[in-house]
Design goal:
heterodimer; A: about 110 residues; mainly alpha; B: about 90 residues; Helix Hairpins
């Protein structure tokens, strides 16, 4: 029973990781690429690690997996924000069909 | 072949396939920011691959490597972004 749950979680996490890989290849500009990869890969790695924890059922493995999951969930948004900010103020172009650009014309104020 | 072995084999195959696809973006990425995002995602996939590989090879020592890879990936991304911001500012 536990093996069934663990295998299902592994396959689900692998599916999300594959989705993030397809997203980084097919999305039109950097910001949509980051939007696809950050969320999907974080969820996929979380599911894979929970599946690993359920397979081993050991306290040491569980603590390591939870440490990795917590660290990833804390640092993935920070890293994406920092890269997105550096890219936007560095002049990385937006997609042609972007409708709303709320930071337009504010480079001087926020740049300091 | 039990369901667990089947699931682990399939996971290894598809995580390896996604690592290949991300390498494609790393090679063709039009700017350096795209390459940094691809490197970040590559290290994240390495953690998932390590977790699945530890089930396949029946050893638990590899999960420590996962923690270190996660730390180094975040540190590398922040350092890249810092120097990117300094380069563009001048």
């Amino acid at each position: 029973m536990m093996e069934l749950l663990s295998g299902t979680l592994l396959l689900l996490g692998t599916f999300f990781i594959l989705l993030s890989a397809i997203g980084i290849l097919k999305m039109p500009d950097l910001y949509t690429r980051m939007s696809a990869t950050t969320k999907a890969s974080t969820l996929g790695i979380g599911l894979v690690l929970i599946g690993t924890t359920l397979y081993w059922q050991d306290f040491g493995i569980a603590s390591r997996s939870i440490a990795i999951i917590l660290f990833l969930f804390l640092t993935a948004p920070v890293a994406a924000h920092i890269i997105g900010r550096a890219a936007y103020f560095g002049g990385e172009p937006l997609w042609d069909e972007t409708r709303i650009d709320e930071l337009q014309g504010k480079q001087k104020n926020n740049h300091s | 072949m039990s369901f667990m072995e089947w699931a682990v084999q399939l996971s290894v195959i598809f995580i390896g396939l996604s690592i290949l696809v991300i390498f494609l973006r790393l090679v063709i990425g039009p700017s350096i920011e795209n390459r940094i995002v691809a490197l970040d995602l590559l290290s994240a996939n390495a953690i998932a691959f390590i977790a699945v590989y530890s089930i396949q090879k029946n050893t638990t020592t590899f999960l420590d490597v996962g923690i270190i890879v996660a730390l180094l990936a975040f540190l590398g991304t922040v350092a890249f972004a810092f120097y990117l911001g300094r380069r563009k500012r001048q």
